[in-house]
Each structure stands twice: as structure tokens, then as C-alpha cells.
């Protein structure tokens, strides 16, 4: 495959670029779910109250003597002042840093974070040059989070969109209840990853623990290493050329494409044997739901 | 929720009292009810350190008679010492209700411990050549100040901040638990054990004693039972993952080892830092950063993971 470099990307139109990066649509293995992405629809990506920030305006916060609330307030104040690139030094494992940022922003953490790092975000590009604790990126709507080291359990729980990348290994229950977006793990993932996954895609370059994809409704999991065991109703599916092409593009974007390529990846999807709700009478449905 | 922490220095003695206080203060939000330490100093060649309490803290607010009752309990303890030819090298009444003895004795420490615990209201917190077990209500800084833990140096330690969910807020239900009557073994735990009563009855049938209704005490008794039947710490930890039911992460310390075990679902958090001369574990990274502010590599142990480190 011909890889996209920066100069090639720059020569493309916005529509072509979006398509080349795999962002035009998300075809899922479910019944008929397709999310269209329209690059011209700018209002979809910017909240009316979002501050207008300049990515070239850069500043730094020393989080050493601040608590999480103070750091998060300071980020908002700086965004109001127009800073589009904010570096946070000395986070020292504090919880809930960088949460709830709902507009464009380059947020860089120089160190490791605790629980719920950059949760509930919609739009920013977050880079963490350390490790994160549990529930990183939980409920994120869009944007990217790139973690250079390891991550804890429930990585990317219930995300609905965006790219969440951990270059190291992650704990258990990765992508639990995810409803969209992409999770990429450079190393291994623990037990019950993809548990009750509903949409979206997860790529793990290393091994997966017990009960992978247990009770998943939909979505796709790609595993590059060994799978300890599949969960209830998770089944292997053939890796198609569109799958491989998308995997190559996505992994290349984040510098995680294995030298051996992606042909050895195992694709895991829902067996749909648990999908019986529609056949139930309304009264039974009420009991279950 | 509870917070647990452990650290072990390899080949050197350090100020583990102050280090563990910093770690536990960082975990205070996980459990403000009580704080406990099991600190391992350099093992005494012949002498034993015994820590005991002669009343619960809340007893002090139930009338002035408790002071004479405590005095009477101390007298009875020391009477047992003299009856069993135990030489008291030092005696320190750390708080109104907590005492620390350094003892010299020949013979079975388990028998001595059982005799002392027959005195109503007296509970041995720890007994061993190196173990010092301190637990009380309040946060780590309060407990550290009350028991002067800032001066404690040693090779390794485990600690606990407790959020009481299944038993009372008192010293009896606080962690760590000493693995009575097995010298120098202590346990801290974060989680819930769902087959507690089945396992407790099994242990009681074997003759083990329980002082509280806290499920974490089971892990101490269970570990003591395994170690006394000749198993290594690693074997005991590995076996527990399948015999103990529930969600749990726990740490066990012995005279020269520190071990950890995680349940089959990895449902309770633990972050691990493994350096060349220091290993630190805690429920949250923020506790490890309290003693290692520089950039370090840490990771989450996986489900069913068992690790043991030596001093």
C-alpha cells in the first residue's frame, strides 16, 4: 500500500483527506448502522460557546501545587484568553485532569495522570507523555488522546467517537460499553476487553486476556497477538481487504504499524446470538430492558 | 473502596514510616475512616516486638472507669509475661490504649499470644521479630503523629486507608491484620470477599481465631493457615485466587518478603512500580508519585497475577 505522507496529505482536498484517513464513514457490522461524516458541516464540530483559540499560542501550567479543579479551571481560563496549545507539567498522577474540554485544543501533559484522564472530551487533541490510570478518555465524543506509556483498566469506557491511543499496554475491561470511535493499544490488553461493546472499533497489537468481547452487541475488535479466550457471543470473522487497509492506515497514522503488516490480525465480532429483543413481546421486552 | 499501599527496599533500610505516611495521605480520599501500617524494621536477633491494645478508642468516652480497667488489663498481661518467664526489655505506652513491648522469651510465641488474648478487651495487633503493626482511627498524618511513625526506618511496609463497608469503624476492624499466631505476617486488602462465612467456618473448624467481622481478616487467617502448613507465600497467594471468592486485591508482607494477588476479574485497582532497589505498589498512581516524583514507568498488574519480592 502507498502510505500517506504529510506532503501528499497537504495536496489533497479536505474531502479527499478525510476519506484517505478513513473518516468519511464508519461501516459497522450491525444491521444498517452507518455514520456519515461531512467535512463541510462545521457547526457539527464546534459548540457555539467554544472559545476561539489559536494553536500557535502556547503556554504552560505547572500542576505541582494545584489540585485537579484548579488545573481544569486554569485550562478554561487560558482557552478564553485564546491559547490553543497548553502544556501541563508535573501532573504527578492526579485524577480527572483535562476533563470536559468541549472545543478544539492541543493539550499536552508532561508526565503521568491518575483516574479519568481527559474524560468527557469533545474535540481536543490530548497527548500524555506518561502513564494514565483507570477510565482514561471515558465517554469521549471526539478528538484524539495519545498516551506514550501504559494505561489502567476500563480504558476508553463508553466512548462514542474519536481516537484513543495507548502505545503501551492497558489493563482490564478496555473499551467496555464503547459506542463508537477507535481504541488502539500498542501492547497487551487484560480480561473482558470489549465487554458489552456496542459500536466502534478496537485494535490491540499485542495479546488479549480472558473473555474478549464478552456480550458484545456490535462493533469490531482486531487483535494482533494471542487471544486467551473469547467471551460469550464473540466470534472470529475473516479479515477482509477493507479491514486490512483500514488497519494499516490507522496504525500508520500513530506510528504503530507492525513491520510484519496486519495480515496476522484476528478479527472478532458479535455472534448476534444474544440479539433476541426484537422477537420478544412488548411486555417481555419491558421486563428485560 | 479502601486504599492499599506497599513498598519494599532491596538491600537497604530506609525511612519507611515517613514514606508510607506520604503514600497513605495521597490515598486518603479512598478511605477516611481508619489508617493502618505494618512496618518491618531490621529483624531483632532474639527479641520479639509485641503491639497490643487494651481498649477501643471509643471506650475512652464511656466513663472514667475505663482507665482503671485498662490498667487492670495491662497488669494481667504482665502477669502472664512473668508466669511464662518472658523478659520485658522495654515497655512503651504509645497511646492510652496501645502498648509496645520488646520481649525476650524461649518457647512458643503462639501459646503466649493465646494466653494474652484470653484477657477480655485485650487484642494483640502484632507479634514478631521485625513487624510493627499500628492502626487507629483518623488519617495517616494523625496516626503517624500519634504513634511517632516518622522516626521508623525499615526495609518494607504495607499500609491501608479504610472506607468501612461491611463492619464497624473501630481499631478491631481496621487493617492491616496480623496473621495470628504466625509471626511477622500481615495483610492489607481492598475488595469484598463473598464466600467469607463459608471460609471463616472452615478456618474456625481448624482452630483459628477471628477478632472481627471484617472480611479482610479472613485473608490473614487463610495466609497463616497456608504458611503454617509449609506453603510458600507465592503458593498461598496463587491458591487464594481460586479459593477465595469475590473481588479483591491484597498485599501480604512477611519478615523479608512482600507479595500481591489480584482476583480473576482484576476488579480492584493496583499500580506497580518496579525499580532496581525499590518496588512500590498502591491503589492509585498518585500514592507512588508521593514518594517518587520523578518520571517513572508503572503498570497495572493483570487478573490472577501474583508477585512476590524479597528484601
What quaternary form is this? heterodimer
Number of H- or I-type helical stretches of chain A: 5
The separation of the N and C termini of chain B measures 29 Å
Strand content of chain A: 15-25%
In sequence order, what are the helices and strands of chain B, one letter per element? EHEEHEEHEEHEEEHHHEEEEHE
Instruction: Average the pLDDT over all residues of chain B and give the rounded result.
Output: 93
The CATH class of chain A, by name, is Mainly Beta
| Rg over CA atoms of chain A | 19 Å
The top level CATH class name of the largest domain in chain B: Alpha Beta
Assign the CATH architecture of chain A.
Answer: 3 Solenoid
Helix content of chain A: 10-25%
Shape of chain B: globular
Task: Give, in order, the helices and strands of chain A.
Answer: HHEEEHEEEEEEEEEHEH
As for the CATH topology of the largest domain in chain B, it is: Glutamine Phosphoribosylpyrophosphate, subunit 1, domain 1
Give the fraction of residues assigned to helices of chain B: 25-40%
Basic shape of chain A: globular
Give the radius of gyration of chain B.
18 Å
Number of helices of chain B: 8
Give the number of domains of chain A.
1
Please name the CATH architecture of the largest domain in chain B.
4-Layer Sandwich
Q: Would you write up a description of this structure?
A:
Chain A has one domain: Pectate Lyase C-like. Helix content of chain A is 16%, strand content 24%. Chain A has helices at 6-11, 14-20, 68-80, 241-253, 282-288, and strands at residues 25-27, 34-36, 54-62, 83-89, 106-110, 122-128, 142-147, 163-166, 179-185, 199-204, 220-223, 234-237, 266-270. An 11-stranded mixed beta sheet of chain A has the order 3-4-5-6-7-8-9-10-11-13-12, with helices on one face. Chain B is of the alpha+beta class. Chain B has 2 domains: 3-39 and 155-310, Glutamine Phosphoribosylpyrophosphate, subunit 1, domain 1; 44-129, ACT domain (Alpha-Beta Plaits), CATH 3.30.70.260. Chain B contains 8 helices and 15 strands. In chain B, strands 7-2-8-1-14-13 form a 6-stranded antiparallel beta sheet, with helices on one face. Chain B has a 5-stranded antiparallel beta sheet with strand order 9-10-11-12-15. In chain B, strand 13 (271-274) and strand 14 (278-282) form a beta hairpin. The longest helix of chain B has 19 residues, at 65-83. Chain B starts with a strand and ends with a strand. The model of chain B has no long low-confidence stretch (mean pLDDT 93). Chain A binds chain B through residues 90, 92-95, 111-115, 130-131, 133-134, 149-153, 168-173, 190-192, 209-210, and chain B through 264-267, 269, 271, 284-289, 293, 295, 297-300, 302-303.
Amino acid at each position: 500500500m502507498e502510505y500517506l505522507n504529510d506532503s501528499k496529505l497537504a495536496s489533497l482536498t479536505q474531502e479527499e483527506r478525510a476519506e484517505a484517513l478513513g473518516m468519511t464513514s464508519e461501516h459497522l457490522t450491525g444491521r444498517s448502522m452507518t455514520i456519515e461524516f461531512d467535512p463541510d458541516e462545521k457547526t457539527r464540530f464546534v459548540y457555539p460557546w467554544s472559545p476561539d483559540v489559536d494553536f500557535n499560542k502556547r503556554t504552560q501550567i505547572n500542576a505541582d501545587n494545584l489540585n485537579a479543579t484548579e488545573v481544569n479551571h486554569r485550562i478554561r481560563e487560558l482557552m478564553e484568553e485564546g491559547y490553543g496549545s497548553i502544556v501541563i507539567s508535573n501532573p504527578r498522577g492526579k485524577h480527572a485532569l483535562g476533563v470536559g474540554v468541549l472545543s478544539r485544543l492541543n493539550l499536552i501533559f508532561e508526565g503521568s495522570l491518575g483516574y479519568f484522564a481527559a474524560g468527557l472530551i469533545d474535540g481536543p487533541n490530548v497527548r500524555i507523555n506518561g502513564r494514565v490510570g483507570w477510565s482514561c478518555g471515558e465517554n469521549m465524543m471526539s478528538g484524539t488522546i495519545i498516551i506514550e506509556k501504559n494505561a489502567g483498566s476500563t480504558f476508553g469506557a463508553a466512548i462514542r467517537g474519536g481516537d484513543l491511543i495507548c502505545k503501551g499496554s492497558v489493563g482490564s475491561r478496555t473499551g467496555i460499553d464503547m459506542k463508537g470511535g477507535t481504541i488502539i493499544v500498542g501492547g497487551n490488553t487484560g480480561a473482558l476487553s470489549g465487554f458489552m461493546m456496542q459500536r466502534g472499533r478496537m485494535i490491540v497489537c499485542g495479546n488479549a486476556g480472558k473473555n474478549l468481547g464478552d456480550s458484545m452487541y456490535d462493533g469490531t475488535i482486531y487483535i494482533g497477538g494471542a487471544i486467551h479466550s473469547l467471551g460469550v457471543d464473540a466470534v472470529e470473522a475473516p479479515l477482509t481487504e477493507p479491514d486490512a487497509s483500514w488497519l494499516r492506515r490507522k496504525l500508520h497514522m500513530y506510528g504503530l504499524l507492525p513491520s510484519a503488516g496486519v495480515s496476522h490480525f484476528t478479527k472478532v465480532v458479535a455472534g448476534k446470538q444474544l440479539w433476541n429483543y426484537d422477537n420478544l413481546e412488548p411486555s417481555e421486552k419491558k421486563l428485560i430492558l | 473502596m479502601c486504599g492499599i499501599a506497599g513498598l519494599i527496599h532491596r538491600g537497604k533500610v530506609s525511612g519507611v514510616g515517613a514514606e508510607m505516611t506520604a503514600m497513605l495521605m495521597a490515598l486518603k480520599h479512598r478511605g477516611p475512616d481508619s489508617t493502618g501500617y505494618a512496618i518491618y524494621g531490621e529483624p531483632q536477633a532474639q527479641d520479639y516486638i509485641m503491639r497490643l491494645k487494651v481498649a477501643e478508642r471509643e471506650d475512652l468516652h464511656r466513663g472514667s472507669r475505663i482507665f482503671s480497667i485498662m490498667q487492670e488489663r495491662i497488669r494481667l498481661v504482665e502477669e502472664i509475661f512473668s508466669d511464662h518467664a518472658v523478659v520485658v526489655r522495654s515497655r512503651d505506652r504509645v497511646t492510652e490504649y496501645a502498648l509496645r513491648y520488646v520481649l525476650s522469651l524461649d518457647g512458643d510465641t503462639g501459646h503466649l499470644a493465646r494466653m494474652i488474648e484470653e484477657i477480655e478487651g485485650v487484642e494483640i495487633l502484632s507479634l514478631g521479630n521485625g513487624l510493627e503493626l499500628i492502626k487507629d482511627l483518623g488519617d495517616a498524618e494523625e496516626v503517624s503523629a500519634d504513634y511517632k511513625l516518622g522516626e521508623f526506618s525499615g526495609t518494607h511496609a504495607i499500609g491501608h486507608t479504610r472506607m468501612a463497608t461491611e463492619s464497624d469503624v473501630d481499631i478491631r476492624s481496621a487493617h492491616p491484620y496480623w496473621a495470628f499466631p504466625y509471626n511477622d505476617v500481615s495483610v492489607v486488602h481492598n475488595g469484598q470477599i463473598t464466600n467469607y462465612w463459608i471460609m471463616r467456618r472452615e478456618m474456625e473448624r481448624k482452630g483459628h481465631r477471628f477478632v472481627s467481622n471484617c472480611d479482610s481478616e479472613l485473608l490473614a487467617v487463610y495466609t497463616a493457615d497456608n504458611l503454617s502448613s509449609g506453603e510458600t507465600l507465592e503458593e498461598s497467594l496463587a491458591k487464594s485466587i481460586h479459593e477465595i471468592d469475590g473481588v479483591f486485591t491484597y498485599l501480604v508482607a512477611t519478615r523479608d518478603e512482600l507479595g500481591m494477588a489480584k482476583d480473576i476479574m482484576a476488579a480492584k485497582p493496583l499500580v506497580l512500580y518496579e525499580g532496581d532497589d525499590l518496588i512500590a505498589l498502591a491503589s492509585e498512581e498518585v500514592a507512588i508519585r508521593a514518594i517518587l516524583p520523578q518520571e517513572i514507568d508503572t503498570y497495572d498488574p493483570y487478573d490472577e497475577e501474583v508477585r512476590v519480592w524479597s528484601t
